[in-house]
User: Fold this.
Amino acid sequence: MAHEIPVTRARAELADLINRVVYGGERVVVTRHGKALVALVSAADLARLEESGEPAGEQVIDVGLMGRERAGGAARAARSGVAAEHH
Assistant:
């Protein structure tokens, strides 16, 4: 499971977050107003994603931020062409 952190805190702790991702094997999801913006993953994880051969648009996953209710998630996924949704 990825560790979530607000973008304002991520700015202040970027060096530490990079070390946690690279040396600790963590994955970090940076959020703004409770919504995922980006994920920090190691270069090895990125290489594995790129080697999978799937177009980036088909690797979208709804991580279900902080246990919030995701009303209409399936309908939203269908409209946006999301290939996978993780709950």
Remarks:
- The chain is about 40% helix and 15% strand.
- The longest strand covers residues 35-40.
- The helical segments are 7-12, 14-24, 43-51, 73-80.
- Residues 54-87 form one domain.
